[in-house]
Predict the structure of HhH-GPD domain-containing protein.
Amino acid sequence: MKLRRNFSKHLLTIYKTLYNSFGPQDWWPGDSPFEIIIGAILTQNTNWRNVSKAINNIKRARLLEPKKLLKHKRVIPRLIRPSGFYKLKSQRLIGFLNYYIKNYQGSVEEMDRQKTEILRKELLQISGIGNETADAILLYALSRPVFVVDTYTRRIFSRHKIFNYHVPYDEIRYFFEINLPNDVQLYNEYHALLVKLGKEYCKITKPLCNTCPIRDIKTWISGYVIQSECNPFR
Ligand code: SF4
């Protein structure tokens, strides 16, 4: 399926409407790129409160530093237990630490010298790191202009008939990237706003369409209208 190029105006209208409704989301929480990376790995299949507890455990143990954390890898499962699936996530985190130290000496400055596409390929080779996590690391920890696609993005835009829910990840990412300005801050905020919309309005069952800020967005493009008419039962 080829996703269309001429959606810039429509996507920006949705963005502005969400921003005006919800305000800035101040993503991603974290005091350093390394903390953001840990958060991106731990946040899979859990809520942020649990991730935050796990990160605080690492901080309290004074291990929020790549080489130290790898040296004490035996305690990682205990420290990150609040984030759920802690055995699996420990393996992912250790996989990332091995890669990060071997290739970039555990330095974000070193990692930041590498090209985005190469970093993306490298991250995707780490067991358990998928497209969404790799792109969250690239966007939020390294400020690369990569659009993060998640379940909320798929649900919201497929309900609005802009693309099918099952379109491959990279096609959706490309769709946003060719239709939006190449702007890290815009990608940062847009993804965060979609997460908020998905959590608070576009729920899996019983979406709150009647009060949703984007329920009746229309955009005129070259004489025809793109209407954000939704089908919440998709
Ligand atoms: S109008 Fe309904 S389907 Fe569309 S984003 Fe809002 S809650 Fe979801």
About this structure: Residues 156, 159-160, 197, 201-202, 207-209, 212, 214-215, 230, 232 surround iron/sulfur cluster (CB under 6 Å). The longest helix spans residues 86-104.
